[in-house]
């Protein structure tokens, strides 16, 4: 994916939102992680369900020290009117997070959130269904999703990867999470950790998978 991606520093933009003007670095500095996500347009079906689910999951994100910031090419007045539909459809969960306005696509382009193929009725590129997870400590992109307009995001997967990122961060990246991992399941020990170091780091012990190569790189352990 060209443009802003994993490992890049979030641009320090000042944007107009439904909560007033926000400077991005000041905003992400307020929590461990910030989810910045874009949607193709207000008053559209998939986006309405997505922002509704973001609202429904807001408490779960907050429990993890995570805040939200939405983006689209519509203006603030449009956002405020649309929020009424979002809240009505999703069972009354309030949209407590800000939604940024970018009618000229200046900021969305810098955030690498423009769809290269989809265009609106005026021929302008529309925002993609993109999502960046930004670390508040170094202002860098730690994870990035990109979905086509036809596919809504899965909030359980967003929670899962947040748990994975936080678990790896807490361990100074000495562990990683395997495929389909969920909280409470074993993690794998980084190949950079020697067997002697692993014994000290993981006194609870670990299991090494027996592989045809006879290499001991696939080691599983349980962490709290």
Automatic annotation (TrEMBL):
Residue span, Thioredoxin domain: 4-167
Which InterPro entries would you find in this protein's record? AhpC/TSA, Peroxiredoxin_AhpC-typ, Peroxiredoxin_C, PRX_1cys, Thioredoxin-like_sf, Thioredoxin_domain
- Catalytic reaction equation(s): a hydroperoxide + [thioredoxin]-dithiol = an alcohol + [thioredoxin]-disulfide + H2O
Task: Please state what class of enzyme this protein is.
Answer: oxidoreductase
Q: Does the keyword DNA-binding apply?
A: no
Catalytic residues (positions) = 47 (cysteine sulfenic acid (-soh) intermediate)
Q: Which residues cross the membrane?
A: none
* UniProt-listed Enzyme Commission number(s): 1.11.1.24
Q: Which UniProt keywords apply?
A: Antioxidant, Oxidoreductase, Peroxidase, Redox-active center
Per the UniProt entry, what are the Gene Ontology biological process annotations, in alphabetical order?
Answer: cell redox homeostasis
The terms under GO molecular function for this entry are: peroxidase activity; thioredoxin-dependent peroxiredoxin activity
Query: How is this protein annotated for GO cellular component?
Result: cytosol
Q: Which PANTHER family match?
A: MCG48959-RELATED, PEROXIREDOXIN-6
Q: What family is reported? A: Belongs to the peroxiredoxin family. Prx6 subfamily.
Main function:
Thiol-specific peroxidase that catalyzes the reduction of hydrogen peroxide and organic hydroperoxides to water and alcohols, respectively. Seems to contribute to the inhibition of germination during stress.
Name recorded for this polypeptide: Peroxiredoxin
> From what organism does this protein derive?
Erythranthe guttata (Yellow monkey flower)
């Amino acid at each position: 994916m060209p443009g802003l991606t994993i490992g890049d520093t979030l641009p320090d933009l000042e944007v107009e939102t439904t909560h007033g003007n926000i400077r991005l670095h000041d905003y992400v500095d307020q929590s461990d992680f910030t989810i910045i996500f874009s949607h193709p347009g207000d008053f559209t079906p998939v986006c309405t369900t997505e922002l509704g689910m973001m609202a429904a999951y807001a408490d779960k994100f907050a429990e993890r020290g995570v805040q939200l910031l939405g983006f689209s090419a519509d203006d603030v007045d449009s956002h405020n009117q649309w929020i009424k539909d979002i809240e009505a459809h999703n069972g009354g969960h309030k949209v407590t997070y800000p939604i940024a306005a970018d009618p000229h696509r200046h900021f969305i382009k810098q955030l690498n959130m423009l769809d290269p193929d989809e265009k609106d009725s005026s021929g302008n590129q529309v925002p993609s269904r993109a999502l960046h997870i930004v670390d508040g400590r170094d202002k860098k992109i730690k994870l990035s999703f990109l979905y086509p307009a036809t596919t809504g995001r899965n909030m359980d997967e967003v929670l899962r990867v947040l748990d994975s990122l936080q678990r790896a961060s807490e361990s100074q990246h000495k562990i990683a999470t395997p495929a389909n991992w969920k909280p409470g399941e074993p993690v794998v020990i980084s190949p950079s950790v020697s067997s002697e170091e692993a014994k000290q780091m993981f006194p609870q012990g670990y299991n090494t998978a027996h592989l045809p190569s006879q290499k001991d790189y696939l080691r599983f352990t349980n962490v709290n």
